[in-house]
Design goal:
Helix content: 25-40%
Radius of gyration: 14 Å
Structural class: alpha+beta
Number of strands: 6
Number of helices: 3
Order of helices and strands: HHEEHEEEE
Largest sheet: 6 strands, mixed
Distance between the termini: 34 Å
Shape: globular
Length: about 130
């Protein structure tokens, strides 16, 4: 697929899966995940290796539910994004609330996606706390 096609897939992920504006139960996210994420999806944080990866589309759906429960009111802003035929890189900003404490969260980080057969196959997420 072209870089433009891959970029569109990644941006749809943030809008339809990550964002909880008007969808705190993630009903929209479940359907979008089925369309956007590969069955064998793998998600890595920072310097995680193969054994530390979160694996599978269904596991990622559960991650989305847990994330929204822990950090309600998620508002994702993509600040920069570039893509080629295999990869999408996004720098993003997340504003939300920490459910347990009520504290505001203001986080910036970067994601590097691998796209395979029109679906998001691998996510490397780099967070700097």
């Amino acid at each position: 697929m072209s870089g433009e096609d891959n970029l569109e897939i990644a941006l749809r992920y943030y809008a339809e899966c990550a964002e909880d504006d008007g969808d705190p139960e993630k009903k929209r996210a479940v359907g979008a995940a089925d369309r956007l994420i590969a069955d064998d999806f793998a998600m890595y944080y920072n310097n995680a290796d193969e054994q530390d990866a979160d694996r599978g589309r269904e596991a990622h759906k559960q991650f989305l539910f847990r994330h929204t429960a822990a950090f309600p009111g998620e508002r994702w802003t993509i600040e920069a994004a570039v893509a080629d035929n295999d990869t999408v890189a996004c720098r993003w900003h997340l504003a939300c609330t920490h459910a347990e404490t009520g504290n505001a969260i203001d986080l910036r980080a970067a994601d590097f996606w691998t796209v395979r057969n029109g679906r998001l196959a691998i996510l490397h997420r780099f967070l700097d706390f």
